[in-house]
Amino acid sequence: MKRQAKAIAMISGGLDSTLALxxxxxxGVEVKAVNFYTGFxxxxxxxxxxxxxxxxxxxxxxxRAAADLEVxxxxxxxxxxxxxxxxxxxxxxYGANANPCVDxxxxxxxxxxxxxxxxxxxxxxxxxxxxQRPKSQRRDTLRIVERESGLDGRLLRPLSAKLLAPTIPExxxxxxxxxxxxxxxxxxxxxxxxxxxxGIADYPQPAGGCCYLTDENFARKFFDVLDAREARGEARxxxxxxxxxxxxxxxxxxxxxAKLIVGRTxxxxxxxxxxxxxxxxxxxxxxxxxxxxxxxxxxxxxxVLAARIVARYGKGKDxxxxxxxxxxxxxxxxxEVEPEHDEAKLEALRV
Length: 351
Ligand code: SF4
Fold this sequence. Notes:
Blueprint: E1 6-10, H1 15-25, E2 30-37, H2 42-48, H3 61-68, E3 72-77, H4 81-88, H5 101-119, E4 123-125, H6 139-148, E5 155-156, H7 168-171, H8 189-197, H9 216-231, H10 240-246, E6 250-255, E7 258-262, H11 266-273, E8 280-284, E9 292-296, H12 300-312, E10 322-328, E11 331-337, H13 343-349
Parallel strand pairs: 1-2, 1-4, 2-3, 4-5
Antiparallel strand pairs: 6-7, 7-9, 8-9, 8-10, 10-11
């Protein structure tokens, strides 16, 4: 009798990874799911910041999918130096924005391989679909990810398995290839059909991106941080704090030396308060307004400009002058400024 196989499932909780999980589970394979946190997950960041702009709290779909299919799940935080360095220098380059998907997948799969070995599992599987994404899910890039992660022959993509070379667990009979799928391309038609067949009703609609790195506006801010460091003669490098601040507030590039970040909501203001150290904290003194931070070493003109922008986003925006407090460590200064009303100028400074 064939022994029971064990597998590691990489799941996001989207429809594809939920289906992959169901397809492998129904073959009697013991599965442990893992969900990677990169620091750039939009829904997870929103959850940590108290919800979406409309006030709703997104659920953690990976946890939900694992619970529905009754498998254990481990939440693995891969954000950190190694991941950030990969983002700055991706070997296979970026997709349309700041998303180095091939490198990112290799990074994740290497980690999944470690987990596979530690768990004594036979293989890793994902919800990837051949041809669904223009760069990272082409036949050649799927192969690169498999080879570079060291998972040669042990990386199964159940939704497209019949279109790909048989993996070791298929050859060994641990997984029945005939019960896997031959899905390719961007249409979700077959996936919907399969969900109905497998009795999977609760899954998120394809969101068209749950990673900030694929977002055009975010990518502008991401590259701005790297470019500004380079312009100052520093290494192109990303820090953990940058990651958090990149998804917080309105960003204005005053010069390569200085950037202004203005909170948009109370939650963002509170978050910025936690990152005052090493930055100037700027806020209107006598009227309600946002908390703002200035990074770097601004000139006098740039300080005044930052104060005018902060005044513009507060309740005093229509006042002739607003007192704006500038705090840097123990130093406190107050600038009496006219709120900035030149929208074209603001737009030009906006990152
Ligand atoms: S979209 Fe690309 S960069 Fe973002 S998590 Fe997925 S693979 Fe990584």
